[in-house]
Amino acid sequence: MSSTPKPKLHKFVLFAPDTKDSARSTVQKQHREAIAPFVQSGVVKVAGMTVTPESIESEEAAVKPFGSCIIYEAENIDVVRKMVESDIYYTSGVWDREKLVLVPFLPVTSFP
């Protein structure tokens, strides 16, 4: 009795800057709900919002979103690209599609 070997999984990093007039806050709940199963299954390893440098200058500073950074683990980049392109941040124009970067990632440290 032979079992099918598990496919080799690779890590990919997405850097997705927001568009100038991003409507991030209006679709954030849907984005988080949709990404939750990928987080729970381990496909999404790390995810978060990038912010402007001024956002962290003091405790009182207003947080100004800049975009998103997500690290995925999947069989290939096409699988990840499909997830990215079906994300509400992508389909609703929160992420700037022209500036979006999705590349393989070879970490040298362990993940939290």
From TrEMBL:
Pfam families: YCII. InterPro entries: Dimeric_a/b-barrel, Sec-metab_biosynth-assoc, YCII. Residues 11-97 form the YCII-related domain. This is YCII-related domain-containing protein. It comes from the Eukaryota. It comes from Lentinula boryana.
